[in-house]
């Protein structure tokens, strides 16, 4: 039976070490300039951080990479999708604050310069940026072959990371999930597949079959900027916005309100997830705590806004479903009754309990 830890990604230890060894130091950092009045979410684990620089709008900041999906891109010599992923991973976090993404800076670390590979990545960055409506005004390429794994006999070995900047429009209240209330509806937007999370486990489970499944595994991460902006344009104020990335649907627990979530009508999971689970003998609890399982983004709205929100999202080209509801149970639990799972923090457990 494969697990994420056996594939080389120990998320529980990562979170423990971050909380005990890193967060105390990061939380002590402070801006000395009088230009900044406050920073919301510093070292908090929310999707993005807001920096307040009056009289301008609050500025949203976030950074993320693509991970070991790059190894599949290298294997298939198909680099454009990971360029899209780099943009999507970042802008999808920015919009969780209610901000509009504006720009992204990219960082590419590589063992050698390959014009074809870099052009394909840049094309993907352009496609993602065009979809998100942002600019990429700068970035960095670092040639650090001595620090990367030996790539003799194959294409370049590289890593790709982005840092995105957004801003809260005038008159819009930032979103952190504190407004979520029991009885609210959770709307789910479908993913295109694994996006760019869980690939260490997927590669371990599938082994040599990754080549056969390249189309499914390299499907780019979906960009949800238009969907979020469609809600605001329709006069709907989301009570919570959650990018379903690493950690899967447990990402709903990042929202600030001390409530819980029951998800009993999720979008169907693409076939690739069943293939990964079967090939690696991976239990549902691990699958749902590692992958998005078919849901790429969640929107929490009041019951009165459900119909209008569904209409706005459909107008933006989405296929939303009412996936569940918010319950009064404290503790930020996430229940998926159809899979027999109850989760909290970073872990789902098999149970028939519901919230």
Identify low-pLDDT runs: none
Overall pLDDT confidence: 94
Q: Give, in spatial order, the strands making up the sheet with the most strands.
A: 8-10-7-11-9-12-13-14
Percent of residues in beta strands?
Answer: 15-25%
The general outline is: globular
Straight-line distance between termini: 29 Å
The radius of gyration is: 20 Å
Question: Percent helix among the residues?
Answer: 25-40%
Biggest pleated-sheet summary: 8 strands, mixed
Helical region count?
A: 10
Order of helices and strands: HEEEHHEHEEEHHHEEHHEHEEEE
The beta-strand count equals 14
Give the structural class: alpha+beta
Multimeric status of the protein: single chain
Can you characterise this structure?
With 355 residues, the protein is of the alpha+beta class. It has helices at residues 11-26, 69-76, 80-94, 115-132, 199-206, 214-217, 225-233, 271-280, 284-290, 306-315; strands at residues 38-40, 49-52, 59-65, 100-110, 135-143, 158-167, 185-190, 240-243, 260-263, 295-301, 321-327, 334-336, 341-344, 347-350. An eight-stranded mixed beta sheet has the order 8-10-7-11-9-12-13-14, sandwiched between helices. Strands 1-2-3-6-4-5 form a six-stranded mixed beta sheet, with helices on one face. Strand 2 and strand 3 form a beta hairpin. Helix 7 (225-233) packs across helix 10.
SSE arrangement:
Layout: H1 11-26, E1 38-40, E2 49-52, E3 59-65, H2 69-76, H3 80-94, E4 100-110, H4 115-132, E5 135-143, E6 158-167, E7 185-190, H5 199-206, H6 214-217, H7 225-233, E8 240-243, E9 260-263, H8 271-280, H9 284-290, E10 295-301, H10 306-315, E11 321-327, E12 334-336, E13 341-344, E14 347-350
Parallel strand pairs: 4-5, 9-12
Antiparallel strand pairs: 1-2, 2-3, 3-6, 4-6, 7-10, 7-11, 8-10, 9-11, 12-13, 13-14
Helix pairs in contact: 3-4, 5-8, 7-10
């Amino acid at each position: 039976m494969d697990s994420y830890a056996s594939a080389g990604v120990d998320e529980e230890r990562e979170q423990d070490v971050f909380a005990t060894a890193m967060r105390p130091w990061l939380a002590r950092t402070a801006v000395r300039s009088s230009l900044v009045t406050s920073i919301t979410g510093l070292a908090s684990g929310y999707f993005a951080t807001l920096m307040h620089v009056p009289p301008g709008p609050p500025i949203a900041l976030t950074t993320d990479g693509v991970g070991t999906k790059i190894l599949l891109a290298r294997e298939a010599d198909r680099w454009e999708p990971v360029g899209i992923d780099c943009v999507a991973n970042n802008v999808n976090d920015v919009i969780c604050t209610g901000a509009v993404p504006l720009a992204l800076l990219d960082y590419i670390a590589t063992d050698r310069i390959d014009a074809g590979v870099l052009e394909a990545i840049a094309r993907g960055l352009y496609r993602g940026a065009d979809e998100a409506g942002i600019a990429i005004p700068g970035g960095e390429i670092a040639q650090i072959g001595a620090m990367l794994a030996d790539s003799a006999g194959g294409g370049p070995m590289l890593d790709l990371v982005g840092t995105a900047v957004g801003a809260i429009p005038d008159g819009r209240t930032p979103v952190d999930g504190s407004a979520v209330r029991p009885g609210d509806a959770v709307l789910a937007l479908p993913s295109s597949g694994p996006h760019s999370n869980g690939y260490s486990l997927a590669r371990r489970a599938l082994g040599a079959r990754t080549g056969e499944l390249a189309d499914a595994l390299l499907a780019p991460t979906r960009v949800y900027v238009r969907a979020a902006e469609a809600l605001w344009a329709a006069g709907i104020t989301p009570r919570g916005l959650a990018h379903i990335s690493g950690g899967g649907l447990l990402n709903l627990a990042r929202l600030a309100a001390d409530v819980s979530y029951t998800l009993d009508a999720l979008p169907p999971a693409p076939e690739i997830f069943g293939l990964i689970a079967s090939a690696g003998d991976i239990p549902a609890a691990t699958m749902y705590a590692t992958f998005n399982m078919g849901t790429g983004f969640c929107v929490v709205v009041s019951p009165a806004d459900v119909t209008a929100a569904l209409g706005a999202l459909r107008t933006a080209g989405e296929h939303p479903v009412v996936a569940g509801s918010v319950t009064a149970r404290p503790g930020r639990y996430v229940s998926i009754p159809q899979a027999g799972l109850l989760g909290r923090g970073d872990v789902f457990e098999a149970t028939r309990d519901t919230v």
